[in-house]
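Teaching assistant's notes for section 4

Start the section by putting this record on the projector. Ask students to predict, before seeing the second block, whether cDNA sequence BC048679 will look compact or extended. Collect guesses on the board.
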Amino acid sequence: MSFRCETLERASSTVKFFFSEAFMGQHFQEVELDKGEPQPGDLFLFKLQSPRAQWFGAHVGVYCGHGEIIHFEGRTSGSGGLQTLLGYCEGVVCKQGHRALQRSRKLWRVLRRRGGIDPKVLERRVQEAMNSDPPLYNPTSSNCVHFALNLLGVDSMSMEMDLTTD
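Reveal the predicted structure now:
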């Protein structure tokens, strides 16, 4: 598969994640945190900080348990512009307390996978992500959505679920 074709497919998986209510409803349910604590594997979706970028979707992290969220973002050189949107930059994997993250970013919604996840498999994947060199970040083909879905065992290319085995 050519690089360009793969990039377009990965970009379309991001769009599908945010804008396909059928996909969301089939695989996830929205959770109200005022009715209980988050569970490992819950997806935290935060509104993007730039008003111009908010229509693109959200920043996504995965609740790991113990009050922590793991997420993936790009670190740019500060030049911004079209190069930042189209090019790759350094990828950074972070683990933060979910309350601290909610103070610095506006929470949009929390999603839980229907059928749940295996917490041990998630814990192993989180440890692997924390101990590995992160991939390069690209807003369309290697972003926080792809990272989060990968932790949950979702193939973002086909949007297939696999949380029971690894």
